[in-house]
Amino acid sequence: MRHPRSKPPPVKPIPPAPAPGPVRRLPQFNLLGLMVVTLICSVASSGIYYLVRAEANEAGMRLTALLFILAGPMLLLVIVSLLVALLKRYG
After folding, report:
1. Does residue 34 lie within any of the structural domains?
2. What would the pLDDT profile of 6-43 be if each residue is shown by its tens digit?
3. Considering the domain boundaries, does residue 24 fall inside one?
4. How far apart are alpha carbons 89 and 66 in whole angstroms?
5. Concatenated DSSP letters for 2-17?
6. Looking at the 3D structure of the chain, how many domains does it have?
7. Distance from C-alpha of 62 to C-alpha of 86, rounded to nearest angstrom
8. CA pair distance 25, 23, nearest whole angstrom
């Protein structure tokens, strides 16, 4: 039995848990991003489609293919920038 005035035994401190490593975040896609990727793929595939038809000697397809391939990316950038501006303003 212990004497009432004696000191209690020392308590061992619990060492802190090691810090967890950095958590790797998975990439997230929103609806706008998926729509933009779909639009880019559809414009590219339509240009290739018209180019293949032009190689089959169908009349007028060579000009259509060139328009889609050359002017398509610029038109796509204009449309995407307008959509982003509208979403920032009203979204």
Report:
1. no
2. 777 777 888 887 777 777 777 777 887 888 788 878 87
3. no
4. 35
5. --TTSPPPPPPPPPPP
6. 1
7. 35
8. 6
Q: Which residue has the higher pLDDT, 53 or 2?
A: 53
> How far apart are alpha carbons 59 and 53 in whole angstroms?
9
Structural domain span for residue 56: 41-90
The contacts of residue 79 (CB under 8 Å, 6+ apart) are: 39
Prediction pTM value? 0.44
Q: Say which DSSP state 77 is in.
A: H
Question: Which of 74, 76, 7, 85 has its CA nearest to residue 41?
Answer: 76
Q: In this structure, are residues 50 and 64 in contact, taking their beta carbons and an 8 Å threshold?
A: yes
Is residue 74 in a domain? yes
Confidence (pLDDT) at 15: 81
Alpha carbons 56 and 42: distance in angstroms, whole number: 21
